[in-house]
Amino acid sequence: MEETIVMFPAAGIGHIIAMVELAKLIQTHRFSITVLLTTGFFDHPSIDDYVRRISAVHPSISFLRLPATTPATFETAVSVAAKGFSFLKRNAPNVATTLTEISKTATVKAFVIDLFCASTMESASSMGIPVYFFFTSGAAILSLYSYFPKLHQEWSVSFKNMVGVELRVPGNAPLKAVELPEPILDRDDPAYWDMLDFCTILPKARGIIVNSFEELEPAAVNAVAEGACFPDATRVPRVHYIGPLIGEPQQSGRDSKECLRWLEEQPSRSVVYLCFGSRGSFSVAQLREIAKGLERSGHRFLWVVKKPVEEEGANQIHEAAKPGDQLDLASVLPNGFLERTKDRGMVVEAWAPQVEVLSRESVGGFVSHCGWNSVLEAVVAGVPMVAWPLYAEQHANREVMVGEMKVAVGVNEREEDGFVSAEEVEKRVREVMETKEIRERSLKLKQMAMAAVAEFGSSTTALTNLNGRDSKECLRWLEEQPSRSVVYLCFGSRGSFSVAQLREIAKGLERSGHRFLWVVKKPVEEEGANQIHEAAKPGDQLDLASVLPNGFLERTKDRGMVVEAWAPQVEVLSRESVGGFVSHCGWNSVLEAVVAGVPMVAWPLYAEQHANREVMVGEMKVAVGVNEREEDGFVSAEEVEKRVREVMETKEIRERSLKLKQMAMAAVAEFGSSTTALTNLVHSWTSFS
């Protein structure tokens, strides 16, 4: 059956985009992707437009709408988060039914869910489907949420009432209790208790995928790795940092193209860009203060202004901004502002193509609400920031941006309502645009981000390991080993062993004393020796510690490496450190070893491989054969040890293999036998009348 990954993002375009960006990466590893979408809460036409665009460009990513679900009603006023969490919990039965249906026609290799969708974990786990959380925020917020159950035990009052109290969370700077993310501020709100459940479940997942990279938040990454933020430091799920993942550039309508053209006309690093996310809005009074500050700063600006909230406070969580939102700019901005600043500023209503804006050479600073997607987009573009958090986890993000990353300056807000004065806006815009150090630090972090997603970068390696393909890691390991010191074991795409046979191989390798690189595929159910099995592929999941002898991986970690399911065999055999190959005698593998000059241990499993062994051992004289138990082909640890030693320590077989390599090279050289044969074949075709 086809193998697929099923993903379930929380409601809302931001969560969906982040999950789809992950899907784009995973699909390159030969998996199809099914994304489940809810219906009935935070629905918006922009979601349908986005789904159509992705489906057209990425046919291996499919979207499946769950049946319409009615949000719950509450007797008392509750937060938007509480309504959203209740809605997602109501979708759990729909998700379970859908997973069951998908499983009838495909093998679900993993179920990737948003933290807020934790209520669906139990049904997937009961079906034997590995569950992974996709954490769309960074490592610092992962540490905070993982530590939340402990904070809950330490305090008996709502954090929103703990004015003046700072909390200590592993991997984070001191956090003001009143500035924690809204869903965990108020014990009287159902969202608080939902979050407690979610965060308690978090460590029980097979793994956690984080949209960050290790070099960006080292303090939080270390705290998570050490288990300092989890209730039980000995039971920490594997965490995969695979970012930065950012949305693909997109344009929408005339205004977006106009602002990009305007940016192209401005001098290098001269424009400060202001945008506060899809759900953040300001009062008219706050908008006018921002305008005054921008005008006084003297700097060029591109400012995205959303329809203001009714209240006269500073800001408020608002419905998603979108192209087409109408507002009369002249009525909400200071009298004459647009006219006075028309030669150095541009105001855009509701929305701008942010990824493209930040990539423009003219943009030198970004006043941001500290949403994690925006932070990553600025980091990738090398643009320093003014940190102005509004809601959710943004206050905690600010501490990381200013304190650890050192790519942002923070605004000082009025304590009672978060209002920011024109003088403060002017000061911070000047600071971010005129400070050499923060600009240089931002460019350095950009280079680190690019390195993380490069061929051998930390995020690329993490994604490779998540998909079960440790190819780059194993090649790096081979480069570090002495010449001809490693025996390589791989049994083809369709050969597998029982747990009992795997353990015998492990014992033989350990006793041999030789270095090894061993490709292990998911074992067969039977306790015999081997069996023709479905093709091994990246993403096959197995718990190595449970199928290998107790302590084997730890005892051999300094001289051996075990890779799950697959390795890049041609590249492995070409490495100077490889001195032997335990093979299933598939003809492609035989030829690859001959070309590389690597002697073999012949262990045939199926098809023509037994006949191949006779040629390899008897005529080629580049292999030694294993002795198998007659009734089932089982091979003892003693036999494995003996044959590994023989192929690695016998001078004659090594010399014969090198000689055959030279013969192979000669055969395909200009006047070699194979080249001549191919020439004659082609000539015979062209000579037909």
UniProtKB/TrEMBL annotation:
The keyword Nucleus belongs to this UniProt entry's keyword annotation: no
Top-level taxon in the UniProt lineage: Eukaryota
Gene Ontology molecular function, alphabetical: UDP-glucosyltransferase activity
Parts of the chain that traverse the membrane: none
Database matches in Gene3D superfamilies: Glycogen Phosphorylase B
CDD domains reported for this sequence: GT1_Gtf-like
One Pfam family from the record: UDPGT
Keywords tagged on the record: Glycosyltransferase, Transferase
InterPro entries in alphabetical order: UDP-glycosyltransf_plant, UDP_glucos_trans, UDP_glycos_trans_CS
Entry-linked SUPFAM superfamilies: UDP-Glycosyltransferase/glycogen phosphorylase
Family named by the database record: Belongs to the UDP-glycosyltransferase family.
Protein name: Hydroquinone glucosyltransferase
Origin organism lineage: Eukaryota, Viridiplantae, Streptophyta, Embryophyta, Tracheophyta
